[in-house]
Amino acid sequence: ELDFKIPAARVDDMSTFNHHLPPDSPIAFSSGAADLSVDLLLKHDDADGFVKLNAENIEALVGDQSISGDLLANILLVGGVPADMNFDISGSEISVDNIRVMGDNESFNQQNWSALLRLTRANTTWERPVSLKAEAGLSMTDSRPIVAILGNENDSPKWVKNMLTVEDIQGTVNLEVADNQIVIPYAFMDSDNIDFGAKGTIDKKFNNGMIYARYKKLGIVMKVTEGKKNFDLIRARGKFDEYKVKAGNE
Q1: Strands (E), 78-166
Q2: Where are the beta strands (DSSP E) in the chain?
Q3: Looking at the whole model, is its pTM more than 0.85?
């Protein structure tokens, strides 16, 4: 058994976590600091405890854009096999506040914006890079940061960005990180008048997927094939439902 406690510690540079991300990850920490506390009880075939990370003014680079804000991660260990560095982290929560987006065309800077990701089912293997398989619920104050990110994509139609500006968004996300890939088998968010869905695979060689958006009766899909984008208005929801995500090695 290992009873491991860190009542309080300071992470001076969040970029130290980048070596746990897949190579060529679309997101990488560039700055920021955090307070850390840990209380774990590890046995050969069981785990219990938590890891809490409270980060302020962290910055992450997403392509040519800068996204910064405050992050609070409460990672719960509710089981697993520590001998294999495999952990059940179901029930963990990650919240983001005071988000700021800076890009060539669009920006967003509002202190009253927040988002919460709650892992309903999740397992991770702590290695380099980390592997993760999770199902999660997602809630956001509104879509304005996403709209700003889309606005910095030069080939995204302006009317699509305008129709996606909505409040009180709820959704679900399935996420897998393994074999140096980030895979989103399914993500879907909705509000009163819109739906927004995404599926895709991101790794060093492959950038494939599909994004779906609906405003009232108007729907559109954007298909990405090896980085090339194609927009379609015909049978948008049907095409999104039929799209199957393939890993880069398939």
Answers
A1: 79-81, 86-88, 93-102, 107-109, 114-125, 131-142
A2: 2-11, 27-43, 46-62, 65-77, 79-81, 86-88, 93-102, 107-109, 114-125, 131-142, 167-178, 181-190, 194-203, 207-215, 218-225, 228-232
A3: no
Q: How confident is the model at residue 60 (pLDDT cuts 50, 70, 90)?
A: confident
Cβ neighbors of 98 (< 8 A, separation 6 or more) are 69, 70, 111, 113
* 73 contacts 94 by C-beta, under 8 angstroms: yes
Residues 77 and 240: their CA atoms lie apart, in Å, by 35
- pLDDT confidence of 142, banded at 50, 70, 90? confident
- The SS3 of residue 224 is strand
* Per-chain mean pLDDT for the chain: 84
Count of residues for the chain? 250
Could you tell me where the DSSP H helices lie in the chain? 144-151, 158-163, 236-242
